User: What shape does this take?
Amino acid sequence: MASDPAPSGRRSPRTRGKRVTLAVWAGLATFVILLLLDGLWAGRSLIRGLTNARAELAIGIESIVTGDPDAAAPHFDAAREAAQGALDAIGHPSIGIAGLLPIAGANIDAASAVADASLATADAGTSMVDVAHDLGWSDIRIPASTSIGSLDIGAFETALPQMDLIARRLRDTLRSLEAVDDGGLVGPVATGYRDAVSGLERRADVANRFRGAMELVTAMFAGEHRYLVNVPALGVPRPGGGVPTTVAVLDVSDGRLLLEDVAPASDAIAGVDVSIDWPRTARALIDAAEAQGVDGVDGAIQLDSVALQDLVWAIGDVEVNGRRFPLSDRSTTTALEIDAFLGESASSASALHADWVASILLAALDRRPGLESFALATSGDARDRHLAIYLSTPQGRRLVRSLGLDGRQPVAGTRFLPVVTTWTSLGEDHVGVLVETTVRQTVQIRPDGSARVATQVLFRNRAGTDPPSVLLGPRIGQAPVGTFSADVTLYLPRRATDVVAETSRPSPIETGRDLGLATITGTVTVRSKASTTLTATYNVDQAVRTVDGERQVDLRVVPQPTVEGVRYELRVALPDGSTILGASSSFDRRGDSVTFSRVQKGPVDLRVRFALAA
Assistant: This one.
């Protein structure tokens, strides 16, 4: 019987093909597994790097602000290392392949942009450490100074170029980060990206403001300068705040600030037209001062009792003559607006006001407050128009304007409806500090885009009737003590038509123009515990404008500076059946209308977007 042939040792083509296929699939599987492992590792490294960079930046910035630049430097180094680690993770093959996918690619690009921004911020932080060293910034107080009245101008001038580069770098980094298309971002990447943009916006804004403040210090206090200081009394209301009551001269010599000639305002200075437009008022004050022999004035600084109380909050309590307890962050405004004027002698009251103002300002020049508290006080007061600066040079005015310290508030324009009311007291009493003001306005939008506007300005007098004093006024004729009289002006769009106005107690109504707007003015007289009103109605065409294809109504609210603010009750009523598409956060939505009800101290812009019924 024949035996089977022995194997030749050679495999068939089919067997070899199977082995090759299995090897290929095994290689691919190994590659996929390695790719997945690389992706997991790179993803975790990316998230860890971004998270650590954010945390280290926060600690470093806090160390700078608290005056410890040496402690800040290692945190900025760590933030730089973490951000670079995140960028290295993005360079891994798995992340690169994932970046080819539409949704994943957009999210990886965003993460890369955040890492780049973190790296640039860390570099800016390291530069900020150098700035802090140049300023001798070793605590939480105002750097490069031994007090507000003794500034090291040389240190500011040395640090300013570097600070300018920091502000510019952060601004450019923010632009690059904002250029990322965030439409396709999802989950933690979307949240992280929005947080990064928000955080960088704040840091860029703070850096820019700090750079501006340093530039302002060098512009105002380097060399020899003289500034007129005006402290008005809000109890004698004027459109820009109050009547000039105490004035002084701030004499500057290379960072040394001396307060001189503190005195009650002369009749000429007190009679200056205090306009909504602070630069116009400042020029009039300087002209009046120079006419009285005050030479070489380079600008003017105005701060009222509200700003002085905030200054006391920043520097600490101030001892003054004639008071058992020092002025504090709760008593200063009341002291300057009420207590100083409780006597019957106007000259004595003015002298006492000047004495207390001098004590506060001299204490401020002699102390070194915390930088953060001082910045918060001044920025808030500038926003609410309790503090303003005017410089005589064009460059100085541009600088002051960039910091929001110029007191300028544009009220004219075709894109918004003005909600602006001012009042000027007619007597020399200070009853105005005890009068509450409410502005009620309804804007009824018509389908054709025009509007019918109805406004009521209500004054409530909380003053008492006894005893006669500079505060409440003397007993003269038939007008009882505590009576408040004022000319009230309502600003209207220039294109307003069919204007009808009246006061609750009939008085002549005058029309005019100011600051590019039409005006109507009436006189009100309010006795103690009583109220009175000025009302007006008018039509305005083209109250609605088109923005990004949607209908929009804009209001600009500009309160007159007062101690307690002005109450507003505003309503924008849209055509029946309209749909509200968007509105300012300060608006409350009610069907097809929006309302704004609050006490407002500073200017605010409001808007509502809507669509007409189909």
